[in-house]
Amino acid sequence: MKKIVYIVGGLYQPSGMGQVLSCKVNYLAGHTEWQIFVVLTERPDLPFFYKLADNIQFVNFDINFDELDTMPLLKKIREYHKKQSVYKKKLTSYLMEVRPDITVTAIRREINFINDIPDGSKKIGEIHFEKHFYRHFYKSYLPGFVNKWITGRWQGAMIKQLARLDKFVILTEEDARNWNMLSNKIVIPNPLTKYPDVHSSQKSKTVISVGRYDPVKGFDMLIDAWSIVAPKHPDWNLRIVGPGNKTPYQEQVKRLRFEESINCREASDQIYDEMAEASFYVLSSRSEGFGLVLIEAMAVGLPCVAFSCSPGPRSIISHQRNGILVEKDNVHELANAICYMIENDDERQKYAEQAIIDSEQYSVENIMQKWITLFETVM
Fold this sequence. Notes:
Layout lengths: L2 E7 L6 H16 L3 E6 L16 E4 L12 H26 L3 E4 L16 E5 L17 H21 L2 E4 L2 H6 L6 E3 L18 E5 L8 H11 L7 E5 L5 H10 L5 E4 L5 H6 L3 E4 L8 H9 L3 E4 L3 H6 L6 E4 L4 H13 L1 H15 L4 H15 L1
Parallel strand pairs: 1-2, 1-4, 2-3, 4-5, 5-6, 6-7, 8-9, 8-11, 9-10, 11-12, 12-13
Helix pairs in contact: 5-6, 5-10, 8-11
């Protein structure tokens, strides 16, 4: 029986990567005869946020790389090398014991040494970020040339390892062109992990955005845009849903005096129901590796307004077909696009119908067949 090991990292909190990876391994466990193994490194004391199928074998090395994010730079560097040494020993020992046919890495810390593990498996990497934002080093207190030099060294070392992989999977055709130095790349987008059984009626006067409360998601810009929209359409409201610290955004709403029309909510495990209560979706991210949430919204029947911030949104949204793309970080353009959606019911309905059709290409069956074909080819 063929064996595939997936190196996931952590599954104890909601994340796009965790959602996608758990969907993939569960599909393989349920639709193939291959043995599926999952390697975790974070917080074995916490329950999985995303459930794994019962026939998946998993191990947690309890390295806890996540705690590095809480440390000052010098301590972070010191502790990283300690953790990385332990990780390398544990992963090497595990792969030598399991002897998988394929090992899949999500291009985390193991990319630095995984090609040198002599377990006999084919090594496949899948990246969940666009090239421009991956391994990009920046510290505000360092001179620009220092940040640039470290970024170059960091990315250069990674590219050497990526070139040694048997296959390197990228999410979009546009981003694949950014990796033109690699000949082993292939494009496979993320799947829609679960197809919804609810759809928007397009009658609600609610706009929704979903994501973790983090600067990269650009909710501050979305709130600023809504401050332009709300006086023109006071009967509409904006709903933001996600995990994390929402306090700064609530304070921004309060400063702008739009508490009546902007609602910052906690993460929901019924996100399709939340989406179905809206009439369209807004993505205000500063960067977005792919934008799985856009496909989820489209499947519910929500046309999308999004910043053209990266290859992900541009590959999913067809401008003035299933949604609207606006210039990256342009708050006024975002506000204008939101107003257009509100003011043009017929056009919004047409976009919504097309969004449902376009989302079907990302079904888990379609995407996982591409993965199965890839695995069979390299084996």
